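haha ok so turns out i had the wrong file open the whole time. this is the CORRECT one, sorry everyone. sequence first:
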Amino acid sequence: MNATVIDGGLDTFPKLLARNAAEFSDKPAYREKEFGIWQSWTWAQTKDEIEALALGMLALGLNEGDHVAIIGRNRPYLYWAMTAAQCCGAIPVPLYNDANAEEMAYVLEHSGARFVIVEDQEQVDKVIDAQDTVHGIEEIIYLDKRGMRKYDHTHMNAYEDVQAEGRAGHHRLEPIMKERCAALTLDSTCVMLYTSGTTGRPKGVVLSNRNIISASASSSEFDDLNAGDSVLAYLPMAWVGDFIFSIGQCFWTGFCVACPESPETMQTDLREIGPSYFFAPPRFFEGMLTTVMIRMEDASPLKQRMFKYFMEHAKKVGPAMLDGKPVSAGDRFKYMLGDVLVYGPLKNTLGMSLVRVGYTAGEAIGPEIFEFYRSLGINLKQLYGQTEASVFITQQPDGEVRADTVGVPSPGVEVKIGDNGEVLYRSDATFIEYYKNPESTADTKDPEGWVATGDAGFFEESTGHLRIIDRAKDVGKMSDGSMFAPKFVENKLKFFPNILEVVVFGNGRDTCTAFINIDLNAVGNWAERNNIAYASYQELAGHPEVYATIKSHVEEVNISVAEDSMLSGCQIHRFLVLHKELDADDGEMTRTRKVRRVIVADKYSDLIDGLYSGAPEVTTETEVTYEDGRKGSIKATVKIEDVKTVARKAKAA
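then structure:
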């Protein structure tokens, strides 16, 4: 635990808010783009907005210990709502705003939320639908008034009206708020966040002020984050990473959080803000690289040659320069020229010209993708973490960044490898419990505080860096006893711009096979350039030339996989291109875009049978969920393709 937290008395977020309003009074705390214009709030204004909402909720009857559900996209008002709840002695519970009513109903019922703060009419409607089965909700507060005039407002209020009531009654309500703030301690519950639920129902992870503040303090010190930094908040507020970056580290350091106008304008807003601190999951970096490659395919031959020439040089010396390693004067000059002609303009287009510290996590990133960004001079690093750890388990120190490790234990975190190869950790940031689930708590955290991550990994003896092999439950054995680690192969395939998602099968079998989702953006662009007409994802996914291209990618990856003596048995023998994209609304992925393998294997069992039976194609029918929540089905005849494999390398002695 950072001693400054205790010595300075900065052990709760209301105290951090008061410190920031005093020390950084006129400095921007939050920004939001609305109607094309950036608006800013200083720390002094932020404190006023938060306290007005807190007082208004006290007037509505919010009690100590109540759970306050918060639903919407990244907006300063909703971040303020989380701190306002804490000022009342209540507990914020952010939900995924793209969840359907059924998913929301589970979390609302399980958490017992009395108050719900939502962004707009769409979220109000979901909450009202959920109230068919959820009976604990007493007050709904909505931010956007559009479309809300004819609703029953008996137990429903506009956000600004609640603030107005709080301001009007501040003489009466301020003593209550101050009393509740004073009662908060390091061990008071700070937030409850629900896991993604890859294997079952999401679990409510209870995190204390000690957990969040210690993680925020130590990680800020690790990367020298300070009040001059800025971050773009665009990831789901229900995800622990966003809570740490946009509230934890923001309040600890005093840096500015900017919220984009919409998901559609996020890339444009990223360029305008130019953050110095940036986090994105591998899928985001994969998507940006796909966009770059698509644009280069449309560029003139001269630009294509220049891009290829300088990128080859960047891959050779860029990461070394970033890590402060010796590089010849000639190579430095050539890199500087490339920075003027290629790297600089490209970073500016990506919105990463000012990024001083960048992180990716959530799942392994393809080494080629990772090296591409570092070769541009972007200080992209990997971290390994979990909701239960308040994010940080390991991080990569500057100068020790590699694609195949996740770094060394974060400050204040102990990490060890269990007898079964599973990664275990403990720290001040380790979660308190799973809400209403003592059995899962006991299964995950032992009496000594060690938490089982569910991931298989090992420490490199020479460097002390942790390497993650795969999810422990996903690592298995082929029928011949060789190791099966699907993520290893999936990440290599996802490097190709036209492959969006991969699910590899093979545990307990003679060979590995795969489902592949094409990237509609990249493949659609290719189809347009080649005058190939298509009417749907399904039609494009089944096109012979698409299959031929994907087959070449799989065979290229097989050559790479064969080089690894431990995992060479994971080469793909047969694959198919799925007739639909895996979708969270269909239960095939989590809201954080992680594949639910068990559900996918069960739902598409007929296709898996076809992959292993030798059939050239399989006719299937699949249930789908439309955007408006209606159910339907699509029929397809899915082609199955055989692939060349490479003789396995002999295992090293």
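Residues 1-5 have pLDDT under 50 and may be disordered.
again sry for the mixup
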